[in-house]
Amino acid sequence: MTRRRKRHSPEQIIRKLRDADAMLAASKTIGEVCQASEISEQTFHNVLNLGKQNWRLWRNRAPTR
To answer: Each residue's pLDDT tens digit in the chain (65 positions)?
Structure first.
């Protein structure tokens, strides 16, 4: 039996990235941030490697509710 991958909505991704930014600013390790955000370290690094412009676009996007 295989596990289904969990897909996050864009709003959830933005919220997790903002929370990760705050935790990293509070001197948390990447491992602690990933564990709290329920994402893998590989996913975290892939998001960071999107490029500065794409990161800025995601980061400044207003979440919808």
So the answer is: 566 666 777 778 778 888 888 998 999 999 999 999 888 888 888 777 765 556 566 666 666 55
pTM over 0.90: no
State both tokens at 43: 């996913």
* Complete DSSP assignment for 33-65: HHHHHT--HHHHHHHHTT-HHHHHHHHHSPP--
Give me the residue spans of the domains in the chain. Answer: 10-60
Q: What are phi and psi of 58, to 5 degrees?
A: -65, -40
Chain centroid offset of residue 65 CA? 18
